[in-house]
Design a protein that fits this description.
Largest interface: A-B, 100 and 67 residues
Oligomer: heterodimer
Low-confidence stretches of chain A: none
Helix content of chain A: over 70%
Number of strands of chain A: 0
Strand content of chain A: under 5%
Number of helices of chain B: 4
Number of strands of chain B: 0
Shape of chain B: flat
Mean pLDDT of chain A: 89
Structural class of chain A: mainly alpha
Radius of gyration of chain A: 19 Å
Radius of gyration of chain B: 21 Å
Largest sheet of chain B: none
Shape of chain A: globular
Chain lengths: ~240, ~110
């Protein structure tokens, strides 16, 4: 199989996995572009920011940062806190991104929630190159997000149809991915812990602040349960 | 706007830097040429499921249980997603079904 063929095949395998993200990112991207538009920024801002940051939630926060007083340190700390969940993704992907050559840098750069969850859970056929598959998942996601943000920034004021509720597409996607992972694994301790601890943390600390406490509690609980979890044989997952 | 262009660029660069740090740090610490510590390997096995669970909760973080519609549209739609998925196990059907239900619920009913 020639290199071109290999790349083409990986693209064709990757594309269907990204269709829900196409819908979600186009919508969220447009919403983000409109938000920047009505906040008084030229379309160049959402274009450049969606291209260089590529992390949905923090880009919405960045709008507020840009509108406030100049404080680079707090911008950095805010970003680190919102994006701390990526640390979990990175640890999970250490093995999967291994041996992907130069593409690895882009895979890590583009490891947003959606890229991580698809690349972690997708059953990549044996005859498809895994590195290129994950590369195209990431690249397509990146393109959708950039495309949406650009449309929103340029045509923001013109969008008129009632898209209220379309943002649920992302929630639905993550519920499905969670379910797929659930069906794949033999024991559910870790999934239930993640769900339960996060819910508890959300109730205790509220939507703005729950991520860091839930990460710490998940880490702590998993560490305390390391022995028993290894005994029941936590899933090797593929 | 209170910031000048240079300050805006610096602020945006801080956000880029922060995002890159959170994404690259694990790969930077645990490089391929050294064996990954046993504990981190263990985390690599158990964290994904927990992280995906956390991600689901992250999506509903702005739902308020005690005001407005009490998160009922979200709850119904998530149940629809789960049922559709258990029934057909077709990712796109589950996602489209749940999203359309949610849009109908919040636009017409709640």
């Amino acid at each position: 199989m020639g290199k071109r063929n290999k790349i083409k095949k990986a693209f064709c395998a990757a594309f269907p996995h990204t269709i829900p993200i196409f819908a979600g990112f186009l919508f969220l991207g447009i919403a983000y572009g409109i938000y920047m538009n009505v906040s008084g920024f030229s379309p160049v801002y959402p274009m450049l920011m969606s291209f260089t940051i590529f992390a949905g939630s923090v880009e919405f926060v960045a709008v507020n940062l840009l509108l406030g007083a100049f404080n680079p340190l707090s911008a950095l700390i805010m970003t680190l806190m919102i994006n701390a969940r990526h640390l979990f993704y990175g640890i999970s992907m250490l093995d999967k991104y291994r041996g992907t050559g130069l593409k690895k840098f882009y895979l890590i750069f583009g490891m947003c929630d959606e890229s991580f969850s698809i690349n972690y859970t997708a059953n990549i056929p044996n005859d498809v190159d895994k590195g290129w598959f994950m590369f195209f998942v990431t690249l397509l996601n990146h393109a959708y997000w950039f495309f949406g943000a650009t449309i929103g920034g340029v045509f923001g004021a013109l969008v008129k149809f009632n898209t209220n509720g379309l943002e649920f597409v992302m929630t639905a996607l993550f519920v499905v991915i969670f379910l797929e992972q659930w069906m794949k694994e033999t024991t559910h301790h870790s999934a239930l812990l993640g769900l339960g601890i996060s819910l508890l943390s959300l109730i205790l600390f509220g939507g703005e602040n729950f991520i860091i406490p839930s990460m710490l509690m998940i880490l702590g609980t998993l560490t305390l349960m390391k022995k028993p979890l290894e005994k029941v044989g936590v899933c090797e997952c593929q | 706007m209170s910031m000048n262009l240079m300050q805006q660029v610096i602020t945006i660069c801080m956000v880029i830097l922060g995002t890159i740090i959170t994404r690259f740090l694990p790969f930077f610490i645990f490089t391929s040429d050294r064996p990954t510590p046993k504990y981190v390997q263990f985390l690599g096995r158990v964290l994904p499921s927990a992280a995906l669970g956390m991600l689901v909760v992250y999506c509903i973080k702005d739902v308020s249980l005690f005001t407005g519609d009490h998160g009922i549209p979200e709850l119904i739609s998530i149940i629809i997603v789960i049922l559709l998925h258990l029934w057909k196990r077709q990712m796109l059907i589950s996602i489209a079904g749940g999203t359309i239900s949610y849009m109908i619920l919040i636009q017409l009913i709640f």
